[in-house]
Description:
With 126 residues, the chain is an all-alpha fold. It has one domain. It has helices at residues 8-19, 28-40, 45-51, 55-88, 92-105, 109-122. 25% of the residues are buried.
Amino acid sequence: MPETLDWDPIRALARRVLREGAPLALTDEVRALLVRSAREVAISDAVASHALSSEDEALDLLREISRRIRDGSARISDALNRMYQHKEAGDFDSARQEMREVLAVEVVPLYRDIAEGQLEDLADEP
């Protein structure tokens, strides 16, 4: 996975297509964006490539990519907030548990990396 992700283009596409109702034009650029973004949210290249066989399936792929980014972002943000509250209260077991719970359900590598990093940082705490 690249060191920095730029999800602005996929978010802009999702906004135009899913919220504003613009048609999904499967240009080479859009296809590449969907495949790259799918990979970044742990959707296999095979699944993404197959989804590009029709506009309806590509639209479903865009919905799933968007959902994984949105849901994962909310999940990690909420868990981090709770983790920091537990840390401030000196409850490191509960802080670690917040990150374990994220790792139990999260599929997006970026969000998993964040949770794993926090869990590693908490390993030295009592």
